[in-house]
Amino acid sequence: MSQDRVTLYHSPNTRSSSALLLLEELGAPYDLHVLDMKAGENRAPAYLAVNPMGKVPAIRHGDALVTEQAAVFLYLADLFPQAGLAPAIDDPLRGPYLRWMVYYGSAFEPAVVDKARGGEPAPQAMSPYGSYEAVMDLVNAQLRRGPYLLGERFTAADVLWGAALAWTTMFKLVPETPEITAYVGRHMQRPAVARVREKDAALQAGQAA
Questions:
Q1: pLDDT digits 0-9 by tens, 13-47
Q2: Element spanning 161, H or E
Q3: How far apart are CA 148 and CA 159, in angstroms?
Q4: Which CDD domains does the protein's record reference (predicted)?
Q5: Domain range list for the chain
């Protein structure tokens, strides 16, 4: 196995689809370990040894095992610097890049899930995100600067957020503001997005057969 070859633990049309998209955008060499989540393969002992949460994505690279979506993205984008999708440590954009990578999982996703469930958010002092409205205001304000999260530069953060906003607007979990609609439109036009959709459709058809 090549030192740089990555194994992605993947289930089609799930959170791991965005990790697959990142691998495609990076032009990285990878293998897929496909899990049928409807059949419960993600809860089997073999996969729980990889990620005890039974969640995807996870990646294996040599002796390194990485779980958690933001960690997977940060690891992969730094592993393949030639793709230019991660600002270097001495780049002024590195801080904002890390901020938006982490903000997705620490604030945006919890806010969207709480909103979708219709429950009362936690008190401000206990909430990891404050309020759903504050989260959406911040996201829209950042996208207004466009065309990407960091301005003119497309990064791995846009792979993560483009996929997330495409999914959440499709299911009406996030308002289709002009900023988000335009951003998702740019995301959907990327050739890698079409390739991943085709791969996932084929994988899902194979699982249903």
A1: 999 999 999 999 999 999 999 999 999 999 999 99
A2: helix 156-170
A3: 10
A4: GST_C_8, GST_N_GTT1_like
A5: 6-84, 94-191
Closest CA to 178 of 139, 140, 132, 147: 140
Architecture of domain 94-191: Up-down Bundle (1.20)
Which residues are within 8 A (CB) of 71 and not within 5 positions of it... i.e. 6 or more apart? none
Tokens 């906003």 correspond to what residue? 165
**How far apart are alpha carbons 59 and 123 in whole angstroms?**
35
pLDDT tens readout for residues 163-191: 999 999 999 999 999 999 999 999 999 99
C-alpha closest to that of 183 among 207, 152, 147: 147
Q: How far apart are CA 100 and CA 110, in angstroms?
A: 15
Cβ contact 21:73 at 8 Å = no
Taking CA atoms, 120 is separated from 111, 130, 135, in Å, by 11, 12, 16
> In terms of CATH, what superfamily is 6-84?
Glutaredoxin (3.40.30.10)
